[in-house]
Amino acid sequence: MDVIITISLLAILVLYLGLFKAAKALLPVTLVGLLVALGLTFNHWDLANNTKSIFSGMLLFNNFSVAFSALAIISTFLILMLSKDYFERISANVAEYYTIILFALTGIIIIASYHNLSMLFIGIEIMSVSLYILTGIKKRDYASNEAALKYFLMGAFSTGFLLFGITLLYGASGSFDLTEIRNYVASSEEISPIFYAGILLSIIGLCFKAGAAPFHFWTPDVYEGAPTLITAFMSTVVKTAVFAAFLRLFYISLSSVTLQEFWVPVLVVLASLSLLIGNITAVYQQHFKRMLAYSSISHVGYLLFALIALSSASDSAVFLYAAAYTIASIIAFAALMVVQKQVGNDSFDNFNGLGRKNPLLALTLTISMLSLAGIPLTAGFIGKFMMFTGALSTYHTALTVFAVLNAIVGVFYYLRVVVAMYFKDAERNELAVPVYFKIVLVVSTLATIIIGVYPGFIADLI
Amino acid sequence: MESITNSIQGVPLNHYILFCAILFSIGVMGVLIRRNAIVIFMSVELMLNAVNLLLTAFSVHHGDASGQVFVFFVMALAAAEVAVGLAIIVMIYRNTSSTDINVLNRLKW
């Protein structure tokens, strides 16, 4: 598969550039390589949508995978544009950052296109092992160390659950192939009890990776301790990829009605808990980064709606929601990086008076917060709208009402930053916003508004 | 030798499932109860090895080799994870002179 090969080779190339002290070339080469990979991804777009699986049924690169891979590559591109001069400040080994991020991206593309549970496992491991390193890459920083160890122990623990789940699914169905598992479910009169145990354990493993409550407890600590750029990568690209994997497994293999009766209630509980814990705890946060970590837990809750209301429309619902959430989060993290770098602290008070001194930064951050909160005319509203429509069409009325109430709580803490920027005055100097940041901010804001006004072109994509 | 193989194959599948589930639970309890990073790490390995054993048992039961191939993937990736994990633990030890996870309490809300 050329996209996976391109990105892996690009990673090795970047590593060699670091070896030969070509520090200036690192970022441009990475960005150009990602553009090539993006082009190759689009090349796989198939209008007839009857793609054949490749590598003896290991991967299936259909339109679903193309869309999610493209989203992952574009968001990685935007995040890496923020990395100019960032890595140099925190470590001497700059090439390794780019290499490991690219390796993580390889894993992400594998889990967006797997068609065999062994590939799901390998993809998740490639991604996670890279992330353990990235989290702890500030070797002397105490918070980074602690975050790396917590992430590593929890990640390895959850991998155990996922593996046990995969094993039980294999034990009952006799195959790792997604289609074979579906055939097993369709053909057998009585599904073996270990198959149900396998579903439960896979849900636990994947929810750990996605950070859904009650398996979320590592998220805030890890997000706070990791370097901000890596946090941005983890909370956007990685989360989207895990959901793509989640959706693929459940949509292809486990979507029969008898099975849905079993796992939908489980996911309803997980989604409500994520919404409740994410939103309520986010209200009490004093720091912007930690607030974003808790808000990411609540977004996992909304994303789980697409699985609860599983249908052929779930693909585009998850894609649209993930795109909206990713773009808005990238803006938020970009703003956070600017403030953090020049003020040194990310508590809400440090955003006071930003509206007067840095109008562009404040405006884009406002739009991103509105999008995360789900205000109409932004992408976040369309995402939430599609999630709620799906849930209502499967008669989960109580859950939808609960989610709407939680969305209102969400508005409160998202707008705190906006209030701080525009309505609180503070003596402050203008923050310098580098050109790269301005490009990312403006492009992402435009994308948020365009998706919010004309959602059709992206919603009908898959 | 023949008789040993035969008697091993005589063990019903349910016994393997039960045994591996117990082994896996011991690993889970170890992760949840122990406070030393290295012991937690060993418990995680125990969980993975319980899975490996179960995979092999299922593979023989179904007469399908893919389960055994999967075991190799699990071993290889577990080895990669060990490399990274031990590096992280060594890094922590250099900074704090301890591998007790109770020392790690700086990040709180």
TrEMBL record, chain A:
<feature type="transmembrane region" description="Helical">
    <location>
        <begin position="94"/>
        <end position="114"/>
    </location>
</feature>
<feature type="transmembrane region" description="Helical">
    <location>
        <begin position="120"/>
        <end position="137"/>
    </location>
</feature>
<keyword id="KW-0874">Quinone</keyword>
<feature type="transmembrane region" description="Helical">
    <location>
        <begin position="149"/>
        <end position="173"/>
    </location>
</feature>
<dbReference type="Pfam" id="PF00361">
    <property type="entry name" value="Proton_antipo_M"/>
</dbReference>
<feature type="transmembrane region" description="Helical">
    <location>
        <begin position="193"/>
        <end position="217"/>
    </location>
</feature>
<feature type="transmembrane region" description="Helical">
    <location>
        <begin position="262"/>
        <end position="284"/>
    </location>
</feature>
<feature type="transmembrane region" description="Helical">
    <location>
        <begin position="395"/>
        <end position="415"/>
    </location>
</feature>
<keyword id="KW-1133">Transmembrane helix</keyword>
<feature type="transmembrane region" description="Helical">
    <location>
        <begin position="229"/>
        <end position="250"/>
    </location>
</feature>
<feature type="transmembrane region" description="Helical">
    <location>
        <begin position="435"/>
        <end position="457"/>
    </location>
</feature>
<keyword id="KW-0813">Transport</keyword>
<keyword id="KW-0520">NAD</keyword>
<dbReference type="InterPro" id="IPR001750">
    <property type="entry name" value="ND/Mrp_TM"/>
</dbReference>
<feature type="domain" description="NADH:quinone oxidoreductase/Mrp antiporter transmembrane">
    <location>
        <begin position="116"/>
        <end position="407"/>
    </location>
</feature>
<dbReference type="InterPro" id="IPR010096">
    <property type="entry name" value="NADH-Q_OxRdtase_suN/2"/>
</dbReference>
<keyword id="KW-1003">Cell membrane</keyword>
<feature type="transmembrane region" description="Helical">
    <location>
        <begin position="7"/>
        <end position="40"/>
    </location>
</feature>
<comment type="function">
    <text>NDH-1 shuttles electrons from NADH, via FMN and iron-sulfur (Fe-S) centers, to quinones in the respiratory chain. The immediate electron acceptor for the enzyme in this species is believed to be a menaquinone. Couples the redox reaction to proton translocation (for every two electrons transferred, four hydrogen ions are translocated across the cytoplasmic membrane), and thus conserves the redox energy in a proton gradient.</text>
</comment>
<comment type="subunit">
    <text>NDH-1 is composed of 14 different subunits. Subunits NuoA, H, J, K, L, M, N constitute the membrane sector of the complex.</text>
</comment>
<protein>
    <recommendedName>
        <fullName>NADH-quinone oxidoreductase subunit N</fullName>
        <ecNumber>7.1.1.-</ecNumber>
    </recommendedName>
</protein>
<keyword id="KW-0472">Membrane</keyword>
Automatic annotation (TrEMBL), chain B:
<dbReference type="Pfam" id="PF00420">
    <property type="entry name" value="Oxidored_q2"/>
</dbReference>
<dbReference type="InterPro" id="IPR001133">
    <property type="entry name" value="NADH_UbQ_OxRdtase_chain4L/K"/>
</dbReference>
<dbReference type="GO" id="GO:0050136">
    <property type="term" value="F:NADH dehydrogenase (quinone) (non-electrogenic) activity"/>
</dbReference>
<keyword id="KW-0812">Transmembrane</keyword>
<keyword id="KW-1278">Translocase</keyword>
<keyword id="KW-1133">Transmembrane helix</keyword>
<keyword id="KW-0874">Quinone</keyword>
<keyword id="KW-0813">Transport</keyword>
<keyword id="KW-0520">NAD</keyword>
<keyword id="KW-0560">Oxidoreductase</keyword>
<feature type="transmembrane region" description="Helical">
    <location>
        <begin position="70"/>
        <end position="93"/>
    </location>
</feature>
<protein>
    <recommendedName>
        <fullName>NADH-quinone oxidoreductase subunit K</fullName>
        <ecNumber>7.1.1.-</ecNumber>
    </recommendedName>
</protein>
<dbReference type="InterPro" id="IPR039428">
    <property type="entry name" value="NUOK/Mnh_C1-like"/>
</dbReference>
<feature type="transmembrane region" description="Helical">
    <location>
        <begin position="15"/>
        <end position="33"/>
    </location>
</feature>
<comment type="function">
    <text>NDH-1 shuttles electrons from NADH, via FMN and iron-sulfur (Fe-S) centers, to quinones in the respiratory chain. The immediate electron acceptor for the enzyme in this species is believed to be a menaquinone. Couples the redox reaction to proton translocation (for every two electrons transferred, four hydrogen ions are translocated across the cytoplasmic membrane), and thus conserves the redox energy in a proton gradient.</text>
</comment>
<feature type="transmembrane region" description="Helical">
    <location>
        <begin position="38"/>
        <end position="58"/>
    </location>
</feature>
<comment type="similarity">
    <text>Belongs to the complex I subunit 4L family.</text>
</comment>
<keyword id="KW-1003">Cell membrane</keyword>
<comment type="subunit">
    <text>NDH-1 is composed of 14 different subunits. Subunits NuoA, H, J, K, L, M, N constitute the membrane sector of the complex.</text>
</comment>
<keyword id="KW-0472">Membrane</keyword>
